[in-house]
Amino acid sequence: MLFRLTDRPVSACAFLVALMAASPVMANEYAPQIQRFVEQKIRPWLRDPAIVDALRKQNAEHAGLDQAGIESLDATWRSEAEQGDGPMIRDILSRPISKILVQRKAESGSRITEMFLMDDRGLNVGQSDITSDYWQGDEAKWQKTYQAGADAMFIDDIEFDDSTEMFQSQVSVSVADPETGKAIGAITVGLNIEQLE
User: pLDDT tens digits for 41-85?
Assistant: First the structure.
């Protein structure tokens, strides 16, 4: 179904997002679909030993890292991301866990737009695509999941991505250690909400 916002017709999804900008009450309109997708398509494989082992390994490696060290790593990553490449980016993208995330993204069709796994400090462990920063610990996607406990989920606002020309929302979920039941990291998944209808 098409609606008119101005002089051109738009899809029902675009119409909804335009209304959301004017009406905060509708900001979580897609939350039920997003939550259902996470429960059916994301959570089942978060106990994968490859994910758990990658988180355990990096958590151990970063146990002694102070804030200055975190910011130094993030600055290096940001510099490389601006250039589109660099040794740190190549290292992360070549990890087996990143290849798993790339595969999971591909298997979703066009529903998943990106995925990145974060450790207990909010640092990227693996990712399907290059992120603009390496440290997510100062952002809600990590603070409202890892810091909130093993069963936490945070659904972010819907935004229009100019580069992909898609309406997207990020959903973040804590990742628990199956042996202890405690959160050991978190994952953020970008979703094309038009494919969730």
Answer: 999 999 999 999 999 999 999 999 999 999 999 999 999 999 999
3-state secondary structure the chain: CEEECCCCEEEHHHHHHHHHHHCHHHCCCCHHHHHHHHHHHHHHHCCCHHHHHHHHHHHHHCCCCCHHHHHHHHHHHHHHHHHCCCHHHHHHHHCHHHHHHHHHHHHCCCCEEEEEEECCCCEEEEECCCCCCCECCCCHHHHCCHHHCCCCEEEEEEEEECCCCEEEEEEEEEEECCCCCCEEEEEEEEEEHHHCC
Q: Which of 24-38, 78-92, 170-184 has the lowest mean pLDDT?
A: 24-38
In the sheet with 124-127, reading across from the earlier edge strand, the strands are: 124-127, 112-118, 183-192, 166-176, 153-161
Cβ atoms 169, 191 nearer than 8 A: yes
Question: In the beta sheet, which residues pair with residue 154?
Answer: 172
The residue assigned the tokens 């790339």 is: 102
